[in-house]
Amino acid sequence: MAEELMDFDEAVRRYDPVIGLEVHVELGTATKMFDAAPVAFGGEPNSRVTPTSVGLPGSLPVVNKKGVEYAIRIGLALGCQISEHSRFARKNYFYPDLAKDFQTSQSDEPIAFDGALEIELEDGTFFTVPIERAHMEEDAGKNTHVGGADGRIEGADYSLVDYNRAGVPLIEIVSRPIEGTGARAPQIAATYVRTLRDIFRALGVSEARMERGNVRADVNVSLRESSDAPLGTRTETKNVNTFRSIEQHVRYEIQRQAAILAAGGAVLQETRHGQADGTTRPGRVKSDADDYRYFPEPDLVPVAPSREWVEQIRAALPEMPAAKRRRLKGEWGLADEEMRDVVNAGALDLIEATALAGCSGQAARKWWMGELARAAKDREIALEELPVTPGQVAQLQALVDEGRLTDKLARQVLEGVLDGEGDPQQVVEARGLEVVSDDSALLAAVDEALAANPDVADKIRGGKVQAAGAIVGAVMKATRGQADAKRVRELVMERVGA
């Protein structure tokens, strides 16, 4: 049964939305957070586990130092303070994908706290998201629901559990209530998660592939009557892993909760399940922290990173994505809108890599935002999944810059590269696409075209130099487009004495 919704514009006019996000990122360590089982995507179910992964009696956890280092990197990048003393806790709850009946996490003593992240919205304005904490924990396993539509639990006949993911290192970044968003709440939520995804990649702590669940967000939404009123009752839509879905679910919850409040009802504090159509459906009544009966993990010692180590990590941090965008925008001479288009297309790193391979930033942008963007759209894949490397694109542009290819020929060469025919030079040689630069060969073609079109030659001699275009076109056709049109025109004018 469809739920009552209020028009979105009416909802944000009558109520003040407050959002909050809990973003989980799987770390790209070689092994799990507390045992030596390997971390890798896929694999046969339950093939990447140890007794510790599934909490068998007698097994003991050991903290992954690289996981702690990655946590500190993330905390520093988000402007957080790094705790001199943090500890793990047991978060107790039952669910089939949690074999131990508790999750090893951090409660009142997280590794990082009190940060903020400035995000840039599509219109170029900025918004600061306050961050409460970033803490370490382990991932749970994965349930597969069999018999339900699209693998969902609704209507499923039974469920299977794969513990390969159980114990994979996670960092959970918890925002404070994000106020003052108004109608921009959906966009701010999605942009915040996208900005975090870019930071994770820049830090090298995760592949951050949302389609694999490397990054996912729990999205909290509540409404209140005005900005100075107490916070309203929130709902939490769990495990959202696309930017579009984040926007849709925030928008839907604002409309749904507004309709409830306007009718005099009360919003139920609960978890919600996001649906493919952008709606949300009830999950379970939301637990508060007390319900999880947190207590210190007795099998793990506190984490106490030295100040020297923290400062070493800080000094080694790479350039952050926002700073990189500002720098590259200036180096490449792009307008604000052009840079936003590059970022939104996911082409920034590809263009930068192409420029580092010896191509100008403008030329690299032309290829990735033009021919290659069209190729990706036609193949229905992401730009980064195209079978062409930044180095090959740079090689292609070098052939153009050297005058060995025209833009038209270069597009044909690119087609060959995308079809797996080799590097640009190999495609040029195999297809015979190099520009004809031998004047003797060009003169022969010019003479043939002039002899076949004596009336055009007379027009050129009579001062109608624009008529030379017909001769140039004939030569280009005769050379299969491999002649330099500018040089052909010069030879035509020389031949007719104009």
Automatic annotation (TrEMBL):
Whether Protease counts among this entry's keywords is no
Catalytic activity of the protein: L-aspartyl-tRNA(Asn) + L-glutamine + ATP + H2O = L-asparaginyl-tRNA(Asn) + L-glutamate + ADP + phosphate + 2 H(+); L-glutamyl-tRNA(Gln) + L-glutamine + ATP + H2O = L-glutaminyl-tRNA(Gln) + L-glutamate + ADP + phosphate + H(+)
What's a single GO MF annotation on this record?
Answer: transferase activity
Which EC number(s) does UniProt give? Answer: 6.3.5.-
Keywords assigned by UniProt, alphabetized? ATP-binding, Ligase, Nucleotide-binding, Protein biosynthesis, Transferase
Occurrences of domain Asn/Gln amidotransferase (ranges)? 349-496
Q: Which InterPro entries match?
A: Asn/Gln-tRNA_amidoTrfase_suB/E, Asn/Gln-tRNA_Trfase_suB/E_cat, Asn/Gln_amidotransferase, Asn/Gln_tRNA_amidoTrase-B-like, GatB, GatB_Yqey_C_2, Gln-tRNA_amidoTrfase_suB_CS, Gln_synth/guanido_kin_cat_dom
UniProt cross-references to Gene3D superfamilies, sorted A to Z: 1.10.10.410
Gene Ontology BP term (one): translation
Broadest EC class assigned to this enzyme: ligase
Q: One Pfam family, please name it.
A: GatB_Yqey
* PROSITE patterns in the cross-refs: GATB
Where is the segment annotated Disordered? 271-291
Function recorded in the entry: Allows the formation of correctly charged Asn-tRNA(Asn) or Gln-tRNA(Gln) through the transamidation of misacylated Asp-tRNA(Asn) or Glu-tRNA(Gln) in organisms which lack either or both of asparaginyl-tRNA or glutaminyl-tRNA synthetases. The reaction takes place in the presence of glutamine and ATP through an activated phospho-Asp-tRNA(Asn) or phospho-Glu-tRNA(Gln).
- State how it assembles: Heterotrimer of A, B and C subunits.
Recorded family membership: Belongs to the GatB/GatE family. GatB subfamily.
**Protein name stated in the entry:** Aspartyl/glutamyl-tRNA(Asn/Gln) amidotransferase subunit B
Per the UniProt record, the lineage of the source organism begins with: Bacteria, Bacillati, Actinomycetota, Actinomycetes, Actinomycetales
Q: Which gene encodes it?
A: gatB
